[in-house]
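Example 3.2
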Amino acid sequence: MSLFKARDWWSTVVGEQEEFDQGCLCVADVDNSGNDKIIVGGYKGILRIYSPQPAKPGAAHHPEELILELQLQDPVLQVEVGKFVS
């Protein structure tokens, strides 16, 4: 008997042939709205921020879940969120 149950809560498909590393994903409340966002950056220089909502099995991806998609000039090697102090 297991105490925990794993299941898919949310998923998405990103661009074709993009490469990511373990530091290219971060989950945080980046806009202080009280809801966590998923921040993804890749080696092609595309930074995306998603606001995921639970999906019903077999339901299609909702475009409004993608809050930001930004093409940068350089690759995104790592994504971090925190309080910056000087």
